[in-house]
Amino acid sequence: MRSPAFAQNLLLLIFVTLGLAILVIPWPFRLTPTTRHFSVDGRQFAYEPGILQVNQGDTVIISLTASDVVHGLYLDGYGLETRVEPGQSQTIRFVADKPGKFRYRCSVSCGTLHPFMIGELIVGPNTAFGRAVALLALVVVGVLTYLWRFLLPQPGKATLS
Ligand SMILES: [Cu+2]
After folding, report:
1. How far is the CA of 112 from the centre of ligand 1 (A)?
2. Rounded distance from Cα 11 to ligand 1 centre (Å)
3. How far, in Å, from the CA of 85 to the mean position of ligand 1?
4. Ligand 1: distance of its center to the CA of 134 in Å?
5. Cis omega (within 30 of 0) on the bond before 86?
6. How far apart (Å, rounded) are the C-alpha atoms in residues 123 and 100?
7. What residue ranges define each of the domains in the chain, with the CATH number in brackets?
8. What residues have CB less than 8 Å from 28, skipping those under 6 apart?
9. Is 160 a residue whose pLDDT tops 70?
10. pLDDT single digits (tens) 6-24
11. C-alpha 153 to ligand 1 mean position (Å)
C-alpha cells in the first residue's frame, strides 16, 4: 500500500507538469479576430489617439484626418503609408499579423517638432489571456482534487466509532 505522502507528491507533480505545459506549449486558442476601426487625428505635433491596441489577426482600419496642416502616417514594421490634406480623410486597412509594438510617425515634414510626431500600435500576441484562464482552471481542479482525495473520508476507510 502506497503512503498518502507518495500519492500527494504524485498529484502535485502531475499538476505542476500540467501548469508548466500550459505556460510553454504553443497555444492553439486565439480570440476571434475582429475588425478594429480607429479615427486618428493628426495635428502639430501629435496624433490623437497616440496609442492603438489590437490583437494579432485583427483587421485594422485607420481613418486619418488632419486638423491644421498636411500630415502623413507611416507605420513601421508594416511599411504602410498615407498622407492627408487638412479637413480631409484617408483610410488605411491591413491585417495585424505581426505581434509587437510598432511606431507610426508623420511622413510629411510639418514643422519644427515634426520628428517627434509619433504614435504606437501595440499588437498583442493574443495568447496571454487564454493561458491565464487555463492556469486558473488547473489550480481550481487541483485544489478540488486534493480536497476530494485527501480530506474527505474515503469509502471503505470511513469508520464509525
Ligand atoms: Cu508631420
Report:
1. 9
2. 61
3. 12
4. 45
5. no
6. 5
7. 4-28+128-146 (no CATH), 35-124 (2.60.40.420)
8. none
9. no
10. 888 888 898 888 888 887 7
11. 73
Maximum CA extent, the chain: 90
**pLDDT top residue among 82 and 157:** 82
Ligand 1 mean position, distance from CA 124 (Å): 27
Nearest Cα residue to 72 out of 88, 60, 59: 88
pLDDT averaged over the chain? Answer: 88
Amino acid at 139: V
3-state secondary structure the chain: CCCHHHHHHHHHHHHHHHHHHHHHCCCCCCCCCCEEEEEEEEECCEEECCEEEEECCCEEEEEEEECCCCEEEEECCCCEEEEECCCCEEEEEEECCCCEEEEEECCCCCCCCHHHCEEEEEEECCCHHHHHHHHHHHHHHHHHHHHHHHHCCCCCCCCCC
Question: Ligand 1 centroid to 133 CA: how many Å?
Answer: 43
Cell for 95? 491585417
- What grid cell was written down for 84? 492627408
Check residue 85 and give its pLDDT.
Answer: 96
